[in-house]
Amino acid sequence: MSAIILASVIALPVMLPAPADILETSSIYSWTCSELLGWHSRLMRDGTPLLIFGHEPFPGWGSFESVTIRSPLEAGLWGNGGWEIDFESSEVPDSSYASGIGLLENTSYQNRYTAYLRRPLPADLFVDISLSREDTLKNQRFVLGRDNFVLGGRGWQTTEDGYTLWSSWNPANFMTRLSFVHLHAGGRQWELLGSYSTQFGEVQFQAGAAGSLSDNEMQMVEGHMRLEFPLRGMTTVLRTDISDSQDDFSLGTTAGLIARYGFLDIQAGVVLPPGSDISFIGIAGAGPAELNLRIDSDGIAGCLQTIITKEFGYLHSGVSLKEDTLQFAGTVMPSVKWGSSGRIHGGVTWDLLNTDDHTSGTMHLKSLFTLGRFAFIFAVEDILDDYRSYTFGITWIFNDRPPRRTEEEEDGT
Hints:
Layout: E1 14-15, H1 33-36, E2 41-45, E3 66-70, E4 83-88, E5 98-106, E6 112-121, E7 125-134, E8 137-146, E9 149-157, E10 162-169, E11 174-183, E12 187-200, E13 203-214, E14 217-231, E15 234-245, E16 248-261, E17 264-272, E18 279-286, E19 289-296, E20 299-310, E21 313-322, E22 325-338, E23 342-354, E24 359-371, E25 374-381, E26 389-399, H2 407-411
C-alpha cells in the first residue's frame, strides 16, 4: 500500500482504501454526490444488502477491498431505485494468508485499531476475519466458506448495536441466503433472500425477492426485477421495485439510458423508488470529472465530483448545491518518492457547509510515510476547532505471495 494506483473511472467511482483512511473510513466515499446531497442510497456488500430491515452501519477499515458508487441506472438488482454504495470483499489468497494490523493513538482518546486475517484452510475451506474500532464505532466480521457456500457473521457496537448471522449458497445464476438478525433496539428477526440472473442474447435479466420476519409478523417484503439491453449504441435499463413494510405497500420504477462515447459518459432517466417521489436524473462524465443533476418536487440539485488517483497522489472531491445549501468535501494527498521503496504523503481532508444562516466545517491534516508493508501515520484532527487533537500510529499489511515486477519495472522506468 505504499502507493495507490487506480485509473480514473468515468461515472462509476471505485475507491481503494488508503492507510490514512483508518482515521475515518467515511472519507473514502463521503465526498461523492449521493452522500453530499443525501440522495436515497442503499448499502451493499458484494452487490447484496446485508440487512433487509433495520439499520446497519458502514463496515470498518480493513474488512473490504474497495468501494464502488453506482447511480440508480447502474445499480444492481437490489439497488431499489436509489444510489448504491457497494463494499467489495477481498479475495482469499491461494497462498498461505493475507493479514493486516493498524494501531492509532489519539490525544482525545478517539483511538482506532484494525486487524484482519484471510487464509485458505484444508478441505478447500477459506476464512476471512476482521475487527476494527473507529472512534466509538466497533465492527467485527467473520466468514467461513467453501466454493459457493458461505457461513458468516457481523457485529457492531454503536448507539444502535446489533449482529447478524447468515448462511448463503450461490450456484451458477442463483443466490439464496438465510439470516438471523438481532438489533438491540429493534428485537430479533429472520430474513430470507433469493435472486436469479440470466442472459438472453444481449438482454440481461435479474429478479429477486426478500423478506424479514419478527415475532411471527412480516417486517418487510420486497421484490425486484431488472432488465438491461442495448439500443442504438446505448444501454437501456428498466427496473421495477416493490416493497411492503408493515402493510405499507409501495411500487417503484426506474427507466433510463446510458451512453458511452470515448472518454464521455452520459446517463439520463426517471427514477421512482418505492415510497418516494419521482425524480429525473442526468449524469455527464468526462475524464475524472462527473456532473450529477436531479430534478424533483424540491427543485434542482446538482453536484460536481472528481476522482483522480495516481502514483503521485490523489484528489477525491465533490461540491454540491441544493436550494440555499452549498457543501464542499474531499481529500487531497500528494506524495513524493523517498529512497528505493518509501513514499511521503501529506494533505488535508475537509467538509465545509455554507447556508444563508451559517458556515461550518471540519478539516484534518494527514501525513504518511510508507515503507514497504508499513505506513506510519500522523494527523492533526479538527484543526478548525479549539478542541483539535493529534493522532499517530502505524499500519502493517502483509501477504506471502511471491514478489512480482511492477509495471514501472517492466516498462524500464
